[in-house]
């Protein structure tokens, strides 16, 4: 991974799941690597072509040197089972989901011993990355093999990301608060809408900005944060208890 031209000629990257985040990945990797993508929706073929990405079968994508799984948590185990017998020895399997404990366990259990596994979570999305990704954060969890060092180095050097090394369990504990509460508050306030836009405070403007960054996330993202993260339910219980307590004592 030293020279971008060599990388593009020598390293193939397959993206499984070509929704909004799969396309974001493609926009930032298509100069360094030969990219191919698979998605069950044939309507995404034109989007792939615009980004210089070849659309292919799941079997073809599973033979790449690096495989990025950008599928929803609900279909994650099915994807892992489908590619397990096809992955080439020495391949690097990376996921980019919002939760890490469950996908990491699935990959470690189902994927063959001869592949490396790195669980990641880019702490941004298409909205927050609309002005570029340099300086944004990404969590990296080593699961199996030594390639996490190469992955982390590439993310830092070539994409300019701030890499946070962590474990799947610690990631989910932190994300339950960071994402769980943010998405929950955004969901509640959007249901109250339309929100005030003229007579606002700076703090409310910041809340509105945060809402704008997550309101267009696919429903699967909120589903994963709310139900697939083992710590989110406890965090939201604490939040609602605090709200009820504050309301009670304020009366």
Automatic annotation (TrEMBL):
Residue spans crossing the bilayer: none
Domain of life: Bacteria
Record key words, sorted: Oxidoreductase
GO MF annotations, alphabetized: NAD+ binding; prephenate dehydrogenase (NAD+) activity; prephenate dehydrogenase (NADP+) activity
GO biological process terms held by the UniProt record: tyrosine biosynthetic process
Prephenate/arogenate dehydrogenase domain sequence ranges: 11-251
InterPro entries: 6-PGluconate_DH-like_C_sf, NAD(P)-bd_dom_sf, PDH_N, Preph/Arog_dehydrog, Prephen_DH
UniProt key word Oxidoreductase: yes
A Pfam family: PDH_N
Classification via PANTHER family: PREPHENATE DEHYDROGENASE, PREPHENATE DEHYDROGENASE [NADP(+)]
Protein name per Swiss-Prot or TrEMBL: Prephenate dehydrogenase
Organism (species): Ruegeria conchae
